[in-house]
Specification:
two-stranded antiparallel ribbon; 59% helix; mainly alpha
């Protein structure tokens, strides 16, 4: 049951980089259940587990949740852009919760890399994107900032829905464990939605390019400063360096964030 949860643990631009990393570890499913471990990037320190049938089931669930969550992330970017006056993503087919248009745009990031990563490293790592008009972005930097933040906001919304379902399930006994003590299907799904969307939302808020946080911080800038910042952001040779720093440094800051969020939202204590 959840009481045993442990969280130790011109050219078009691209928005909603949707960079996602969910890591499958070993020995126990820390997102609410026993059987194989499913952890956040802290499990990179552990030995890679064997590819058992249980782990395949868990990995499949997390991949489907990743696919849906990333689709919501990118569709939210497209919706915010459309409301702000840029219909580039809408015309490109990204304003939809159907994952197919998003997969067509980023087949490597949404299908091939996540599945290959799980097969060879027991991790689910992927990304997605939605097109936008960079001239619109420069003309309306504040609107662009709201567009950037719409993606992580969608992830946090999915996470909060999972929190509500977890509390309802605990109160009404919806979680079921088999004779072997393994978590039921519903428990696995809501656990994945909670942990993965918390991870996606926090990771994409990091203020380094090309993550959403690097554009979202323009909300705190004046119009002129924001435009100068955008000009630098587009031409900076350090874009990939920032992403590498974020990816490898994230594991050290995410653990305390996840623990705090879980204690507060799941167990109702600080």
């Amino acid at each position: 049951m959840l009481e045993h949860l442990e969280s130790r643990n011109g050219k078009r631009g691209n928005r909603g980089r949707g960079n996602a990393s969910a890591v499958l570890g070993r020995s126990r499913l820390h997102s609410q259940c026993s059987a194989p471990t499913l952890e956040t990037p802290r499990s990179l320190r552990t030995k890679m587990p064997e590819l058992t049938p249980d782990l395949i089931v868990v990995g499949f669930i997390w991949y489907i949740v990743f696919l849906f969550s990333t689709t919501c992330h990118e569709a939210s970017h497209a919706l915010a852009a459309k409301l702000g006056g840029d219909d580039t993503a809408t015309l490109g087919g990204q304003l939809t919760l159907n994952p197919v248009p998003h997969i067509r745009r980023e087949p490597w990031g949404m299908v091939l890399v996540p599945l290959l990563a799980f097969l060879f490293t027991r991790q689910i790592i992927g990304w997605a994107s939605a097109p936008f008009n960079p001239e619109w972005e420069r003309r309306y930097p504040k609107r662009s900032a709201w567009m950037a933040l719409a993606g992580p906001a969608a992830n946090f919304m999915l996470m909060l829905i999972a929190v509500v379902l977890i509390h309802l399930a605990r109160n009404f006994g919806w979680f079921y464990r088999g004779p072997d003590g393994k978590a039921g299907f519903f428990e696995l799904i809501v656990s994945a939605f909670y942990f993965l969307n918390l991870l996606l939302g926090v990771f994409n808020l990091l203020p380094v390019p090309p993550l959403d946080g690097s554009t979202g911080i323009m909300l705190f800038m004046g119009e002129g400063t924001a435009r100068s910042y955008l000009d630098w952001l587009r031409t900076s040779p350090y874009r990939l360096v920032g992403l590498l720093i974020a990816f490898y440094g994230f594991r050290y800051i995410y653990g305390p964030i996840e623990d705090f969020a879980t204690r507060l939202l799941i167990f109702g204590r600080f």
